[in-house]
Specification:
With about 475 residues, the protein is an alpha+beta fold. It is about 35% helix and about 25% strand. It has a six-stranded antiparallel β-sheet with strand order 2-1-23-22-21-20, with helices on both faces. Strands 8-6-3-17 form a four-stranded mixed β-sheet, with helices on one face. Strands 11, 12, 13 and 14 form a four-stranded mixed β-sheet that branches. It starts with a helix and ends with a helix.
Length: about 475
């Protein structure tokens, strides 16, 4: 009986060993099959006429083990466009924390005597990119203004010397280095200021006539713009030609020009622009709202607004948590949010919001986790600048790191879906990219980054060809 049990045990152990060997062999075969298929498909992709003169980089790893599944040009620095947002997002989670919130303070300087303020209403901004945004009920511009007005009324103020915004902790120009002139006047080219308002965006309604080549006039702006002169050089084009109008302005100036074309017979053709000065826009909006409630300004001598030193707090506006900000940042690819986050990362460390300092902190963070600085040649947080150079290897390393973090669920949820995969896309002139995660039908998980620079032809055609390569992972 003992001998029979021993023989049965040996037989069982042999069966388990065989099963383990089969499982390992299947895993190796699966990995080799995927790698071989990617090699074949990628060669066909690179040989496509759209990639004459182009560079394509693809890096794929096993999401669970980190094992390399495919690598081509993965250490070559390429312009990443908005795929760079995954780097900024992960950096913000790491350096600020998923529950981080912006706080914008409202108060006054000077003495309040009776109902007359011998000083200014003073705003101390935090660089909050959600201030006045329509994406959350709590940040809605109407509700924000109402809360600020209520705090001023509660204090009993009926007269004041003006509104000032303290931007002493927010250094430099709102526009990062390397942004193109054609971009910075339009909504997607809104830079991050100390005080941001309505995502620094306004809508411009244009009216065209019946004749092709005819002049186009301005019908309205929403909201009303303060202290800005808009000139249109837009012409009418054939029906169906779509939006080919661009807004231009010089940072610091109050003159806006609109050029390009819109279709004929449009009564209110809306394009969206970037506010030249969101700080001035909000201050003027607040003053108009105060006036409507009988709270008026008393003119003061030039320079008085800058001389205030004391501060009495009246009200604090608090943003949604970072987790929620990252959701919209990636889901809708809002460039403003990326630039604000980079400056906030700098401000948290040094007390001054600076793009250059923020980028240095981001690079130092990932250097400490094994990503070399030469793989992250960043100049902004959104990827809008064509000067950025990032490797697909670095992006996948960061994506792999994110999977093991307590904030991963929010990060993953923020990624859009393309081609049935959770991917952040990126598009600027001559650049297309995708990076993120995918789980195949048989349960295999991948982390990937795929970037193409300097392609020719249409972006839509290229995207379909990129999808064919990525379909191998399905």
């Amino acid at each position: 009986m003992v001998l029979l049990n021993f023989n049965a045990m040996l037989l069982s152990m042999k069966r388990i060993s065989v099963l383990l060997l089969c499982t390992l062999a299947c895993s190796v075969v699966w990995s080799q099959t995927i790698t071989n298929r990617l090699e074949t498909t990628f060669k066909i992709f690179e040989a496509d006429p759209q990639l004459r003169g182009a560079v394509a980089s693809l890096y794929v790893t096993n999401a669970k083990t980190g094992e390399i599944v495919f690598s081509k040009n993965s250490t070559m620095g390429l312009a990443p466009a908005s795929t760079q947002k995954i780097i900024t997002s992960a950096s913000a989670y790491e350096l600020l924390g998923k529950q981080f919130k912006y706080k914008t303070s409202f108060g006054y300087s000077g003495a309040l005597i009776g109902n007359e303020l011998k000083g200014v209403l003073l705003i101390k901004p935090s660089g909050d990119p959600t201030f006045g945004s329509w994406r959350w009920q709590t940040t809605n511009e109407i509700k924000v203004v109402q809360r600020v007005l209520s705090s001023i009324e509660k204090a009993g103020i009926k007269k004041y010397n003006g509104v000032a915004v303290d931007v002493s902790e927010w250094a430099g120009e709102a526009i990062p280095d390397g942004w193109m002139w054609q971009d910075i006047g339009n909504y997607y080219g809104a830079g991050a200021a100390g005080l941001n308002w309505r995502e620094n965006q306004y809508d411009l309604a244009l009216q065209s006539g019946n004749s092709i080549g005819g002049a186009v006039s301005i019908a309205a702006t929403k909201p009303k713009l303060y202290g800005v002169e808009i000139t249109t050089h837009v012409k009418s084009a054939a029906k169906g030609t779509g939006d080919n109008a661009y807004i231009y302005f010089v940072p610091g100036a109050n003159a806006i020009q609109v050029r390009g074309t819109i279709p004929v017979e449009e009564a209110k053709f809306v394009i969206s622009g970037a506010m030249p000065s969101p700080q001035k826009q909000f201050a003027a909006t607040l003053e108009d709202s105060l006036k409507a409630r009988g709270i008026v300004t008393i003119p003061v001598e030039t320079g008085t607004l800058a001389e205030a030193t004391n501060f009495t707090l009246l009200h604090t506006e608090t943003s949604p948590p970072l987790d929620s900000v990252i959701y919209w940042f990636n889901k809708k690819s809002i460039n403003l949010y990326g630039e604000a986050l980079v400056k906030t990362i700098a401000h948290q460390k040094t007390g001054v919001g600076s793009t250059d300092v923020g980028v240095k902190r981001i690079k130092a963070l990932w250097k400490s986790k094994g990503v070399e600085n030469w793989e992250l040649n960043m100049v902004d947080g959104s990827g809008l600048s064509p000067l950025n150079r990032v490797t697909t290897h670095a992006q996948v390393q960061i994506l792999q790191h994110a999977k093991a973090q307590p904030w991963f669920d929010g990060f993953y949820h923020s990624l859009p879906e393309y081609n049935g995969m959770k991917l952040k896309s990126g598009t600027i002139n001559g650049v297309k990219g995708f990076c993120g995660y995918h789980t195949s039908k048989d349960g295999k998980s991948y982390t990937l980054s795929f970037i193409v620079n300097n392609y020719n032809g249409s972006a839509s055609a290229l995207v379909q060809k990129m999808y064919k390569v990525l379909d191998v992972l399905k």
